[in-house]
Every structure is written in structure tokens, then in C-alpha cells.
Write a structure and sequence with these properties.
heterodimer; A: mainly alpha; MetI-like fold; 73% helix; 0% strand; B: 280 residues; 76% helix; MetI-like_sf (chain A); transmembrane (chain A)
């Protein structure tokens, strides 16, 4: 009797019990299929692409990167993409902030937010197709401007930089706005009321109450919107000048993969694209600390 | 809420509403252009077309084989919705109910495919799928589309599951329900609104997902949005109105589901639910 009980006392709880105490049991295992899926189809391709980019068709292990940074047709794409993505993202954010502050006071926000979800849902291909007509020389936009006598010649708005710019505003602004709105409405209105009671003007309330609290949210909104704009592809081809001023980095990656069938080079360009996005995101999130230090989420109501 | 009534504040408000109005007006005019053009007999250099017709829909339907394309689209979307629901809801349940080592890492793993734009991870993914021979097939398109949708379902479902009281499940266990019975009779009815909302959003996102489908689709596994891209890309080969008719068909297939989805979710959730996570 003693001999049968004693070993289990020495062993303590079984492996199953010890694992359960750390949160591993049958329920935890439910996460395994999705985790394996993500590892196989997200992490593995990334790792594979990274390694593949160092195994070029010809030359040393770095020759894909050497080629990218020595061929102006390739390295210029970084500058061209940034020249599109940064102004668009800043414009979208600058427009979204005052509008979000106004819409916050609205009772029936739902209609406006529904309208703004439309371009996100329809996607860039449809927006490009629509703008091709709408902004074209015979389109309603130019026609309206000419009717009002604002211009005498139709503006050239498609197949150049401005076409892509417009499509990025149409699809990007609602995205930026809805994110901003969710951050703005997350701040306790009592804080603003307290500031108003103490005699702060509207600008002072924004500058000294809201802005410091919203800075982390704005930084994240900027990052997400920027990353979306930086990876512009269909509208740069359809609405822009894909051989000239709107030859963005995703076009270069696509051409390497599906026109030259050089998957190694395409992976290298995709890695460079990811790296530039990461660099900007890290820079923005790091500079966030320059604006405000201290608890920001404590005010969320 | 504080409302200013000074002249400056009123002018500021008027300026902002003008801006919103300008944006919405342009958006509707853009959509209106496509719809008008799709019904136009001839539309060159005038405000409105000379006459109206519906024949472009017939010609678009036959020229672009829209019957086949729509069938493929719905098959892809159906498979994506089903599989992402199965994988996503079960994983979300584990993440919502258990604390374990490495959970934060796992959440990060599910967050990244939503934060990184599809074209960035799509090219390495397409490379891998071409190596395995999956690209160009129906299942290649489904698998590629699942990469962002499984994490999307997980991140939408976690807060939904967290708000279901664990005591309810404990009570069911006390009365002898096994895990399967618990899921079918207790959790499913409680979670159904959340699952429905998540899957409808997946549906809308998959119909509109251009980049991933474009990178891995072959001629027989194109979805509608990719077919539309090729049609616009090769503009000049077909009549503009025919392409516009196809664009209208695409809009209708997307918006029907969006309208249904909006009955269950707040529009802002489409953007923010999953994206807001890193803020915390």
C-alpha cells in the first residue's frame, strides 16, 4: 500500500496537470492548426524569400542587392514610391484629424462612415477604373471645372503622378479617417470639459489636451496608412505612368517575378520594400517619444 | 460635448463640412461615371451619353466569360470563408480562454499578415506556391487568400469570445457536456453574431482582394477583381462601356455583401477592429 502511493507523492502532479497549470491543455491545442498554417504560409515564405534573395541567378550572394542599388531604373523606384506615399499619407492624416473632431460631435455618424467604407470595400482596381473616366479629359471633373471657368484647358490628371495620387486619397483617406475617428472617440470627453471649464480655447484644448493623448494613435495611423500607400500597385499601373514617374517599387518586384521570371531578384526587391516600410515605421514610432512622455492610455474612457 | 458658437468656429465647421462634401461628391461622381458609362450607347465629349442601352451587359457577360469568372469567385470565396472560419474561431477560442507562455508571440504572428501589405508578402508567397505547383490552381488562390483572413477572423473573434462568461461553459461541463457538445449547443449560439460578422467581412475582403489573387491565379482560377484588372489593363481591345458593365457587376457583387455585413457590424470595425490591436 505504502509502496504504491509513495512514488506518486514523490513525482507530484502528472505532466498533464503541470502543463494545465501553465495553460497548456486540450483547449490550448486548438490554436495549433492556425499557428501551423501561419508558420507555413507566412513565416516560411518570408524566410524562403530572404534566403532566395541571396541566391541570385548569377554572381555572388549579394549581387541582387548590388544590382538593385547600382541600376537607377531599380533604385529610383524607392524614391518614386516615397514621393507618392509620404505626401499622400500626410495629406490624408491632416484632413482626417479636423474632420474626425467634427464628426465626433455628430449623432448620426453611421451614414457618413458607411459612405466612407465604400471605396475601401470596392478596392483599388475599381477606383482606378472609375477615376480613369472621371478624371479624364472628357470626364465630369474637368468638365465641371471648365463650366465654372476655373480652367480653359482640361487638366491632365490621368496616366501621371496625379492620377495615382487621387486614387490613393480616395482609398486611403477613408482608412485614415476611420482609424483616427476610433482614436478620437476613445478619449474621455470629461478631459476636454475640464479644460474648457478652466478657460481653454478650442485650439488650446486641442493642442494641450487632445494632441498629447492622441499622438501615439496618430503615429500608428500614420504607419498603417503609409504602409498601405507604399505598396500601391494596381492604380500605379492603371492610372499612372508605370514606365515613368509612377514606376513604384511593387511594379519593379512584379516585373522581376512575372516578366523576367527571376524570382530571386523579385524576392530581393520584396525584401527591400519590406525593409523600407519597416525603417519608416520604426522611425515614426521612435520619434513618437519626442512629443510626449507619460501615460496616454489612462485617459481612455 | 462642447459647441463653440463664435464666428470663427462656425466658419471652421463650414470649411470642414465643405471638405467632407467635396470628397463624398467626388466619390459618388466617380461611381456614377462607371454606372452611366455602362448604360451608354455612345458617350464622347458630352455631359451625358446620347442614348441608353443594356446591351453592354450581354456583351461583357460573353466577352469576359463572366459566368465562369463569377462561379470561380464564389467557389474561392466560399472555401476561404469556411476554412478561415474553422481555423480562426478555434484558434481565437484558445487565445481568448487560456494564458500560456508564448501567447504574445503567437498574437504577433497573427497580427503581422494584417499589418504587412499583401504585395510585400505576396511575392515570396507566390514564389513558394509556384515551387510547390499550387499556384495557378483553385486551391493556390484559396490558400493565398487565407493568409490574411485566418488572422483577421482570430483577431475579430477574440474580444467576442472573451465577453462570453466562462461560468456558462463550466455549468455545461458540470451537466456532462463534452467539448463538442459544448461548442455546438452552448458556444455556437452565443458566438453566432460574432462569427457571422467576421465571416461576412472575410467574404467582402476576399471578393475585393486583388494583390494576392493576382499574384497566384492562373487563367482558370481568376476572381472577378483580377479579371476586371486585366480588362482595364488591356483597355482599347474592348469597348469602354463593356469594361464599365463588368465593373458595375463587380460593384454589385461586393456591395450586396457589404450591405448585409453592415447590418451586423459598425462600419468603423471594418478598418479598426483588427488594426487597433497594436495600440494597446
Amino acid at each position: 500500500m505504502h509502496q504504491t502511493v509513495a512514488p506518486s507523492i514523490i513525482q507530484g502532479p502528472s505532466l498533464r496537470q503541470r502543463l494545465a497549470a501553465r495553460g497548456f491543455d486540450a483547449v490550448t491545442l486548438l490554436v495549433v492548426p492556425a499557428a501551423v498554417f501561419s508558420l507555413c504560409l507566412f513565416v516560411y515564405p518570408f524566410a524562403f524569400g530572404l534566403i532566395l534573395s541571396f541566391e541570385p541567378k548569377s554572381g555572388g550572394w549579394l549581387s541582387n542587392y548590388v544590382r538593385f542599388f547600382s541600376d537607377s531604373f531599380l533604385y529610383d523606384t524607392i524614391g518614386k514610391t516615397l514621393w507618392l506615399a509620404v505626401p499622400v499619407t500626410l495629406l490624408n492624416l491632416v484632413l482626417a484629424v479636423p474632420i474626425a473632431f467634427r464628426v465626433r460631435l455628430m449623432r448620426h455618424q453611421r451614414l457618413l462612415t458607411t459612405i466612407l467604407v465604400l471605396p475601401i470595400t470596392l478596392g483599388t482596381v475599381l477606383v482606378a477604373e472609375g477615376l480613369l473616366n472621371y478624371l479624364g479629359p472628357q470626364g465630369w471633373f474637368n468638365r465641371t471645372l471648365m463650366t465654372f471657368g476655373l480652367i480653359s484647358q482640361p487638366l491632365k490628371l490621368v496616366h501621371n503622378y496625379w492620377g495615382v495620387f487621387a486614387s490613393l486619397v480616395i482609398t486611403g483617406f477613408p482608412f485614415t479617417f476611420l482609424l483616427t475617428l476610433s482614436y478620437v472617440t476613445g478619449i474621455d470627453p470629461a478631459l476636454e470639459q475640464a479644460a474648457a471649464t478652466l478657460g481653454a480655447s478650442a485650439w488650446q484644448r486641442f493642442r494641450h489636451v487632445y494632441l498629447p493623448l492622441l499622438m501615439p494613435g496618430f503615429a500608428i495611423t500614420f504607419c498603417l496608412s503609409f504602409v498601405q500607400a507604399f505598396s500601391v500597385f494596381p492604380s500605379a499601373v492603371l492610372l499612372g505612368a508605370p514606365a515613368g514617374p509612377t514606376r513604384v517599387i511593387s511594379i519593379a518586384a512584379y516585373q522581376a517575378a512575372f516578366e523576367e521570371y527571376d524570382y530571386s531578384m523579385a524576392s530581393a526587391i520584396a525584401m527591400i520594400m519590406g525593409f523600407v516600410q519597416l525603417a519608416i515605421v520604426v522611425a515614426v514610432l521612435a520619434s513618437r517619444g519626442l512629443f510626449y512622455r507619460g501615460p496616454a492610455s489612462g485617459a481612455k474612457g | 460635448m462642447i459647441r463653440d458658437t463664435t464666428l470663427g468656429a462656425k466658419l471652421w465647421a463650414a470649411a470642414i463640412w465643405t471638405l467632407v462634401g467635396f470628397f463624398v461628391l467626388n466619390l459618388f461622381a466617380m461611381i456614377g461615371t462607371v454606372v452611366t458609362s455602362s448604360f451608354a450607347t455612345r458617350w464622347l465629349g458630352t455631359w451625358l451619353p446620347i442614348g441608353w442601352t443594356t446591351r453592354w451587359y450581354d456583351s461583357a457577360w460573353s466577352e469576359f466569360q463572366l459566368g465562369d469568372v463569377l462561379l470561380v469567385t464564389f467557389q474561392v470565396v466560399g472555401a476561404v470563408v469556411l476554412i478561415s472560419g474553422l481555423l480562426g474561431v478555434t484558434a481565437a477560442y484558445a487565445l481568448a480562454r487560456r494564458e500560456f507562455a508564448g501567447k504574445r508571440l503567437l498574437v504577433l504572428l497573427f497580427l503581422l499578415p494584417l499589418l504587412i501589405p499583401p504585395i510585400t508578402f505576396g511575392i515570396p508567397l507566390a514564389t513558394v506556391l509556384y515551387r510547390t505547383g499550387l499556384a495557378g490552381t483553385f486551391w493556390g488562390v484559396v490558400v493565398a487568400n487565407l493568409v490574411p483572413t485566418v488572422p483577421f477572423v482570430i483577431l475579430v473573434m477574440i474580444p467576442f469570445i472573451e465577453q462570453v462568461d466562462p461560468k456558462i461553459e463550466a455549468a455545461a461541463r458540470v451537466f456532462g457536456a463534452n467539448t463538442f457538445k459544448l461548442f455546438v449547443h452552448v458556444l455556437m449560439p452565443l458566438l453566432l453574431p460574432g462569427i457571422l460578422a467576421a465571416l461576412l467581412l472575410v467574404l467582402v475582403r476576399t471578393i475585393a482582394m486583388f494583390e494576392l489573387t493576382f499574384l497566384v491565379a492562373g487563367p482558370t482560377s481568376q476572381t472577378l477583381v483580377v479579371a476586371l484588372y486585366y480588362a482595364v489593363f488591356a483597355a482599347g481591345v474592348r469597348a469602354v462601356q463593356s469594361i464599365d458593365a463588368m465593373a458595375v457587376i463587380y460593384m454589385v457583387t461586393t456591395l450586396v455583401w457589404l450591405i448585409i455585413a453592415l447590418r451586423f457590424v459598425n462600419p468603423t470595425q471594418i478598418v479598426t477592429r483588427a488594426k487597433q490591436q497594436p495600440a494597446h
